[in-house]
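Ticket #4471: structure output looks truncated?

Reporter: J.K.
Steps to reproduce: submitted the chain below (150 residues) through the standard prediction queue, then opened the result file.
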Amino acid sequence: MNCGLDCLVILGRVPCIEVLHSCIKVLHSCIEVLHPCIEVLHSCIKVLHPCIKVLHPCIKVLHSCIEVLHSCIEVLHSCIEVLHPCIEVLHSCIEVLHPCIKVLQSCIEVLHPCIEVLHSCIKVLHPCIEVLHSSIKVLHPSIGNRHYYT
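Returned output as attached by the reporter:
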């Protein structure tokens, strides 16, 4: 509101002083309305200030945690780079061992009948050993009490 202009417009009807007085009343009303708002804002600032003080170190800690996590990720990446050739070597070893295992399996298949023949021979020899042992008992009674086989 421009009081000087109002004075010119309403000249003769309302004195300028009264218009100025009305302007001051409106301004005073605005101040009265704004005062509690300013008090609430001040209270909010009082409450927020300690929160900000607490939040600041938390942000610093969070930043440090992020740096540590980044370092851990770099270490993990290095480990993966080191392990990759090891896994390739292991894979090559498995490829080399696979035919060896097949050869070993073939050997076992060939040896199995040999072991069965050997077992049959032992079965045949066992009575022969018993006869021999009995013969030794008869020929040398003092030796006959000793066991030479199981």
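Triage note (M.O.): checked the attachment and the full token line is present. The radius of gyration is 54 Å.
Status: closed, working as intended.
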